[in-house]
Amino acid sequence: MHPRQIAFLAAVSNSNQQIAPGVETALPVDNAPRAEAEVQSINPWKVAILLLAALTLYRFGVLAQIGLHPDEAYYWLWSRVPSAGYHDHAPMIAWWIWLSTQLLGDNSLGVRLFPILSVLIASGATIAISWELYRDRRVAVRAGVWLNAMPLVGFATLFATPDAPSMLFWTLTVWALVWLRRSGDRRIWLLVGLLAGLGCLSKYTNLFLGLGILVWMILDSEARKRLYGPYMFIGGAIALAVFSPTIVWNFEHHWVSFAKQFGRIDNGQPPSWHTLEFLAGQFGLANPAIVIFAAIAVTTVWKQRRAGDFSSTAFLLVLSAPLLIYMLLHSFHSRVQGNWPVPVYPTMAIMSAEAARHCAGSRHLSRMTKWAAPAGIGLIAATFYYFASPLGQQASFSSPADKLIGWNELSTDIAHYKLLRGAGWVGTIDYGVTGELAFNTDDPQHVQEIISRTRYSFETVDPKLVEQPGLLVIPSASGILERLRSCLPQMEPVGEVARRAGKRVLERYTIFKIKQAPQDIFSTGCVL
């Protein structure tokens, strides 16, 4: 980033800091009065608007140039048949993709339109929550900026996965709760119920926010006096009504989605190093500087727990605590994916921004406050720019971005084999490959997974398709071939293709021709 851009972000992050007596400044003495005047003349609201608008436009530009992640392509398959539920998750992300592709078409930006906008809206809500709680405009702006400086938010929530609507509706629900807490207008419970229900339609993780609300009402005696009443229960009924289509869908599909997600609570694995992995991962994914300030905020709440005053920071912490505690307990026996806690990241940004306001007397913490935003946003922006460029698309080193590269070229190669061999359909053994090949072809209906067919209960496959010869695409390193022969005895290898990043081979695939497949292969699939 240009030095002036870094200085601009540093000013945003540090604009409300008071220089404590005896603390060294980075500016020469003769420039200090003018620099102080310039900082004070900055309007934080304008800075926030300009920065968030610039980041959003930048994200539109770079993400339009980056191919879909296999998970995104899989959710795009869902969106072709909108439903009240799906095998793996709640349906909101599929609804978003359906609407955005109606507007912009089946392309990378069309799939990611609403996730990108959701980060912008969540940033605005983060600023609004912080302002309502602390009435300090610079702390509010810092919270919104720091949210965008968190690598997990700056990377993961911009892609079309359930994390994007999950974080958005969690944050909007907290905003409604803050409004309720400040105004005392119990009718706001109705809005809380609506937003919480939409959050549960986004990802089942959002159910933990409901538990957080109950804990808050139990612990905060003042809230019970002012806010408890019929509207609270009506709000809960609204949340249940909004979520009910997915409950009904699960009932009709043998509770498959609930079983898949809630089955992770205890998988019987022995204790391991997953807890350390979880904590270390969150330290990096949430931005180390921001995590340190969040820890200071939590420590402050703990020290003040007997004061009798349920502070604003305690309120935010209690809402987030059930999810965080569950994640920690889960890590004792199984791996916690890094993206799972992302709904509470806006809350973390707010708590950290408020804690930083009280740390101006520490030279080291003041420097950390100053550089949290430039370092986080700069790293995210530079990474996106690199992988959106031709150089990044042909990178000579391995990285998580490998999952985004080479799918269009691979699909073209497989389409050539399909035409050459007179095949009518392409079979796969993996949902991600299925989604990618379907997204990158003009005929997605003719790409079908042949193993886990319960994932595709939302679609109806043409029964005549199985009567045609097909191609089967299998990762060459897969050990599944011999087991597949019991289901598809009449298949023969016809070639090999590779997914590449420039000259580097990311993965090789063997192609088989299927002369005749079982009649039920697109309903029950191959049982291995």
TrEMBL record:
Residues 88-249 form the Glycosyltransferase RgtA/B/C/D-like domain. It is found in: Cell membrane. Its EC number is 2.4.-.-. It comes from the Bacteria. Pfam families: PMT_2. The chain crosses the membrane at residues 47-68, 113-134, 146-168, 188-219, 231-251, 279-302, 314-333, 371-388. GO terms for molecular function: glycosyltransferase activity. It is a multi-pass membrane protein. Keywords: Cell membrane, Glycosyltransferase, Membrane, Transferase, Transmembrane, Transmembrane helix. The keyword Amino-acid biosynthesis does not apply. This is Glycosyltransferase family 39 protein. It comes from Rhizobium mayense.
